[in-house]
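My current task is to audit a protein record that another person submitted. I have pasted the whole thing underneath without changing anything:
***
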Amino acid sequence: MTCNVHDRWYQCAIPGAGSPPPPAYVCAGDLYCINGECTQVEREASTEFKDAMVAMNVMGELRDGFDPDRLKIFSGEHLRCTRKVFGLSNCCSGKGVPLLTPFLCDREDREVDKRDDAGLCRFIGTYCSARVLGVCVTRKQSYCCYGSKLVRILNEQGKAQLGMRWGTPQRPDCEGFLIAQFQQLDLSRMDFREVYAEFVDAAKLPDEIDMSIQIQQKIQNYYNTNGGT
């Protein structure tokens, strides 16, 4: 007959005590014992890993996003899409909505649609770009688009911290930060929840269940090797 289930008993002995305390199960979590007194410790969620991931990605963006000519970092690009007031052509579909008439849209229109859907753009505003007899017939929507979601978030929340403006729809300010300006930012006050999941996926962390199985197998191998039960 083969035994498929083993029980392991643990006890914390008190030095000098006449009789050992009753056995106790260790089922989950962390059980710490000092001088015979055991307590269950609940771990609180920590944001240190997420903060470290943000810092690592910011450093990566700094390496790729520095403009030596203007001495600025994290600058964006001004892009516009076109919407006809009269007619079927609407090349400003909005985030998550496909273009209904892509064959009537130019390259910049399609680029705005692609980048905005990817979460890379900040909407600045709308303005009239063409009039006929005083009537607006064409409107343009203006955006500042960036190389990544992280850079867009840094610009949105960083400019708010420094009181920097975005300009007008006709002339938006998509510039990033001078080094001195970036040094004034408090990244701990920024909300990066939008990109946390992407950072964790990119880190390729080991699967929690697989890791748990591996740890249990190593423990079992240790007991088998040392004659434990």
Q: What stands out?
A: Residues 45 and 51 are 13 Å apart (CA to CA).
